[in-house]
Design a protein that fits this description.
Fibronectin type III domain-containing protein, Immunoglobulin-like, 130 residues, alpha+beta, 2 helices, Ig-like_fold, four-stranded antiparallel sheet
Length: 130
Protein backbone atom coordinates (compact mmCIF):
# COMPACT_ATOMS: atom_id res chain seq x y z
CA UNK A 1 0.00 0.00 0.00
CA UNK A 2 2.84 2.40 0.80
CA UNK A 3 4.40 1.86 -2.61
CA UNK A 4 1.30 2.93 -4.53
CA UNK A 5 0.84 5.96 -2.27
CA UNK A 6 4.35 7.35 -2.89
CA UNK A 7 4.08 7.85 -6.69
CA UNK A 8 0.65 9.45 -6.30
CA UNK A 9 1.97 11.83 -3.64
CA UNK A 10 4.97 12.75 -5.78
CA UNK A 11 2.75 13.37 -8.79
CA UNK A 12 0.45 15.62 -6.76
CA UNK A 13 3.39 17.60 -5.36
CA UNK A 14 4.85 18.07 -8.83
CA UNK A 15 1.50 19.13 -10.27
CA UNK A 16 0.90 21.65 -7.49
CA UNK A 17 4.39 23.11 -7.91
CA UNK A 18 3.88 23.51 -11.63
CA UNK A 19 0.46 25.11 -11.36
CA UNK A 20 1.26 27.50 -8.51
CA UNK A 21 4.89 28.34 -9.15
CA UNK A 22 5.99 30.77 -11.78
CA UNK A 23 7.52 29.11 -14.76
CA UNK A 24 9.65 30.10 -17.64
CA UNK A 25 10.78 28.33 -20.74
CA UNK A 26 13.47 28.93 -23.31
CA UNK A 27 16.16 30.96 -21.57
CA UNK A 28 18.90 31.66 -24.05
CA UNK A 29 21.87 33.92 -24.61
CA UNK A 30 23.07 35.14 -28.00
CA UNK A 31 26.35 36.97 -28.43
CA UNK A 32 26.06 40.09 -30.54
CA UNK A 33 28.25 43.07 -31.29
CA UNK A 34 28.65 45.04 -28.08
CA UNK A 35 27.31 42.42 -25.69
CA UNK A 36 24.97 39.52 -25.11
CA UNK A 37 21.22 39.43 -25.74
CA UNK A 38 19.24 37.36 -23.25
CA UNK A 39 15.71 36.15 -23.98
CA UNK A 40 13.20 34.14 -22.02
CA UNK A 41 9.53 33.29 -22.23
CA UNK A 42 7.19 33.58 -19.26
CA UNK A 43 4.07 31.50 -19.85
CA UNK A 44 2.69 32.24 -16.38
CA UNK A 45 3.54 35.26 -14.26
CA UNK A 46 1.07 34.60 -11.49
CA UNK A 47 2.85 35.47 -8.25
CA UNK A 48 6.14 36.56 -9.88
CA UNK A 49 7.81 39.42 -8.02
CA UNK A 50 11.00 39.75 -10.09
CA UNK A 51 13.27 38.32 -12.75
CA UNK A 52 16.89 38.56 -11.59
CA UNK A 53 19.68 38.13 -14.14
CA UNK A 54 23.14 36.99 -13.03
CA UNK A 55 26.44 36.59 -14.90
CA UNK A 56 29.36 34.27 -14.14
CA UNK A 57 32.68 35.00 -15.81
CA UNK A 58 35.14 32.24 -16.64
CA UNK A 59 37.46 33.13 -13.74
CA UNK A 60 34.68 33.41 -11.13
CA UNK A 61 32.96 30.68 -9.19
CA UNK A 62 30.04 32.89 -8.14
CA UNK A 63 27.28 34.56 -10.13
CA UNK A 64 27.04 38.37 -9.93
CA UNK A 65 23.64 40.02 -10.27
CA UNK A 66 23.55 42.41 -13.24
CA UNK A 67 19.87 43.43 -13.25
CA UNK A 68 16.44 42.82 -11.78
CA UNK A 69 13.29 43.24 -13.86
CA UNK A 70 9.73 43.53 -12.61
CA UNK A 71 7.09 41.46 -14.41
CA UNK A 72 5.08 43.42 -16.98
CA UNK A 73 2.72 40.69 -18.24
CA UNK A 74 4.73 40.01 -21.38
CA UNK A 75 4.98 36.62 -23.00
CA UNK A 76 8.65 37.18 -23.83
CA UNK A 77 11.36 39.22 -22.13
CA UNK A 78 14.66 40.52 -23.48
CA UNK A 79 17.68 42.04 -21.81
CA UNK A 80 20.89 43.25 -23.47
CA UNK A 81 24.05 42.92 -21.39
CA UNK A 82 26.50 45.47 -22.75
CA UNK A 83 29.69 43.70 -21.83
CA UNK A 84 33.09 42.72 -23.10
CA UNK A 85 33.25 39.75 -20.70
CA UNK A 86 32.73 37.29 -23.56
CA UNK A 87 36.09 38.38 -24.97
CA UNK A 88 37.80 37.21 -21.78
CA UNK A 89 36.45 33.67 -21.85
CA UNK A 90 33.26 31.69 -21.39
CA UNK A 91 30.37 33.52 -19.73
CA UNK A 92 27.34 31.87 -18.15
CA UNK A 93 24.04 33.57 -17.37
CA UNK A 94 21.44 32.62 -14.79
CA UNK A 95 17.81 33.75 -14.68
CA UNK A 96 16.28 33.62 -11.21
CA UNK A 97 12.50 33.94 -10.90
CA UNK A 98 11.32 35.13 -7.49
CA UNK A 99 7.72 34.83 -6.34
CA UNK A 100 5.79 36.74 -3.70
CA UNK A 101 5.56 33.56 -1.62
CA UNK A 102 9.36 33.36 -1.46
CA UNK A 103 9.91 30.49 -3.87
CA UNK A 104 12.69 30.70 -6.41
CA UNK A 105 13.46 28.86 -9.59
CA UNK A 106 16.30 29.39 -12.00
CA UNK A 107 17.70 28.35 -15.31
CA UNK A 108 21.28 28.72 -16.53
CA UNK A 109 22.63 29.15 -20.07
CA UNK A 110 26.10 29.78 -21.53
CA UNK A 111 26.77 32.67 -23.88
CA UNK A 112 28.13 31.12 -27.08
CA UNK A 113 31.44 32.77 -27.93
CA UNK A 114 31.38 31.47 -31.51
CA UNK A 115 28.67 33.96 -32.54
CA UNK A 116 30.94 36.92 -31.84
CA UNK A 117 33.20 37.91 -34.78
CA UNK A 118 35.69 39.57 -32.40
CA UNK A 119 36.09 36.34 -30.45
CA UNK A 120 36.61 34.37 -33.66
CA UNK A 121 39.18 36.91 -34.88
CA UNK A 122 41.03 36.83 -31.55
CA UNK A 123 41.06 33.03 -31.74
CA UNK A 124 42.61 33.15 -35.22
CA UNK A 125 45.27 35.62 -34.06
CA UNK A 126 46.20 33.33 -31.15
CA UNK A 127 46.49 30.35 -33.52
CA UNK A 128 48.79 32.31 -35.86
CA UNK A 129 51.32 32.98 -33.09
CA UNK A 130 51.52 29.47 -31.63
Amino acid sequence: MVRSFTPVLLALLLLSALTYGAGFMLFRAQTQEGGVRLEWQAPSEQGVSSYDVYRQDAADTDFDQITSLSPTAQAQYRYFDETDHVLKGPVTYRLLVRTASGTRSYQTTPAPADDNPMVRSWGLIKVMFR
